[in-house]
Design brief:
By secondary structure, the protein is mainly α.
């Protein structure tokens, strides 16, 4: 019980390290030749990684018996949304100067941005309904059905990543393979633990 109380704040702090590292790099002038693109991709990468970590918790419980990790699912999912929000905000502010007309044109004409905004809307809906109060308001069955959006969202995020990169698609493909493996693991039947014979 004590370890669970310690685990959450530790993971919370660890989840902020990528953002702190990005700020440090920015302060040191170490963001490369195109800082807006570096920031945008860095934040998008970490949004996807937190999505993957969130998906990994159920297989970790089923195959490794790590039940404590399930208490982190909401936090990690919200960190995925947090980094995705920074990713989208950076795109809107730095790339478009908050020009709504240009934003609509981009969403309509540029397929990878259309896909990316679809992912973000999925994450937004999950974040807004992540509280215990929303579980009660929606009902457990509808809430679970809604939160299965994380599966297509993760796949679409990999597609967005793949389409955004013009060359060297190795990393997007690796992320996609991990997501497919984690989703496939949910289909594997895990035998119940063997009962000890009574003497």
């Amino acid at each position: 019980m004590r370890s669970r109380r310690i685990l959450k704040p530790v993971i919370f702090i660890l989840a902020l390290i990528p953002l702190a590292w990005l700020i440090w790099r920015g302060a040191a002038g170490d963001l490369g030749a195109n800082p807006p693109e570096t920031i945008d991709r860095f934040l998008g990468d970490w949004a996807l990684r937190f999505l993957i970590l969130t998906l990994a918790l159920t297989p970790a419980k089923r195959f490794l018996g790590w039940t404590s990790g399930m208490s982190l699912r909401r936090m990690l999912g919200l960190f995925a949304f947090f980094y995705a929000s920074l990713h989208v905000t950076g795109y809107l502010v730095v790339n478009l100067g908050l020009n709504l007309e240009d934003f609509i044109k981009d969403v309509v004409k540029r397929t990878f941005i259309t896909v990316g905004m679809g992912v973000y809307l999925c994450l937004l809906s999950l974040a807004l309904t992540s509280t215990s109060r929303m579980v009660k308001r929606l009902g457990a069955a509808r809430w679970k059905a809604l939160h299965r959006l994380i599966y297509p969202a993760a796949l679409a995020a990999c597609l967005h990543y793949f389409m955004m990169i013009k060359a060297d698609h190795l990393l997007p493909l690796l992320h996609l393979l991990v997501v497919i493996a984690l989703l496939g693991a949910r289909l594997v039947q895990v035998p119940p633990p063997a009962k000890m014979n009574e003497t």
